[in-house]
Amino acid sequence: MRHPARLCLVFALALATAGCSGSGPGTHAPPSGRAPAAAAAITSCGRELALPKPPERAVALDQSSTETLLELGLQDRMAGTANLKTKIPAQYQAAYAKVPVIAPKITTGEQLRAATPDFTVAGSADLYTADRAGTREELAALKVPSFVSAVDCPQQNPAGRSAFELLFSDYENLGKVFGVEERAARLAADQRAAVAKAREAAAAAPQGADRPTVVYLYSAFNGMPYVAGGSGLPSEMSRIVGARNAFDDVAEDWPEVSWEEVARRDPDFIVVGDLSERGRPGDSAAEKRAAMAAHPVVSKLEAVRDGRIIEVPGIELDPSVRSVHALGLIAAGLKDHGHDH
């Protein structure tokens, strides 16, 4: 970000104008039926956030954050959204239509300042850089608290907490910030129940080396497959449903590998992420199926020959309010393809 001092001054003036205007968005009363919330203090990715009152002009920097806020019924408190990868699902479309889109892709500092936010939410810490929305330190200096999903910051959380539990803690912390604790608690409870149901269904699954292996094919960019590594949510999904991610030994979320390496691991099942709405070459599930069928080695895998392929929305393989839906599809798909306990 060029001329940081000058840009910070512009941002500060914009925030002051938004907050002091008698008819501006900063003076909106709480939505009908919602009592004013008290001050909140939480820790987000190692940073203490203290808010004297619930945000009224929150900006979500990515789709997962946007959908979480919409699920919590906070569309009237949102001043912007950005970085949409796929279409907003039907259950959120009416609420989403009320929120300004401040950037079609990754938000820049200028775009964020123009929205005059009083709170920002991001699913990953890398959205807070000097050449993107601005660093968390820069935003803190402007009195704009910045929230990062706990899933992207495991080193700052108690050891042993699963990725899903970290995701649920996001709901609970955002509930505190916005004064919607009851709704957040219901959401976390419902999703914990969905995870427990998938785990119970797999309780009798073979353990150890007998667990079926799964390759998660996220995208096939320039002909090269990107699969789920050991640090992403799919590894936990595998454990919950009684399977094992075939690339658990790779300490990345979505590493690029070769088709030959996929074949060498010879998975029992292949989960294909459908990203057709994103529109890049190779994004659709049909294109990925065709690429595997045409490959001289991968096409010979039993999982491909026997059609042990499970399709899920690709965005649901990254941590989001919709991830439990993908978990259910994977559990059902394993059962449908013969992994019945």
Your description of this structure?
- It comes from Streptomyces globosus.
- This is Iron ABC transporter substrate-binding protein.
- Keywords: Signal.
- The chain has 341 residues and is α/β, with parallel strands linked by helices.
- It folds into two domains: 4-14 and 37-191, Rossmann fold (3-Layer(aba) Sandwich), CATH 3.40.50; 206-336, 3-Layer(aba) Sandwich (Rossmann fold), CATH 3.40.50.1980.
- The protein has twelve helices and twelve strands.
- The chain has helices at 4-20, 63-71, 90-96, 109-114, 136-141, 163-178, 181-201, 233-240, 259-265, 285-294, 302-305, 323-336; strands spanning 40-44, 47-51, 58-60, 78-82, 101-103, 119-122, 146-148, 213-221, 224-227, 244-245, 269-274, 309-313.
- The strands form three sheets. It has a five-stranded parallel β-sheet. Strands 8, 9, 10, 11 and 12 form a five-stranded mixed β-sheet that branches. Strands 1-2 form a two-stranded antiparallel ribbon.
- Helix 6 (163-178) packs antiparallel against helix 7 and helix 7 (181-201) runs parallel beside helix 12.
- The radius of gyration is 21 Å and the shape is globular.
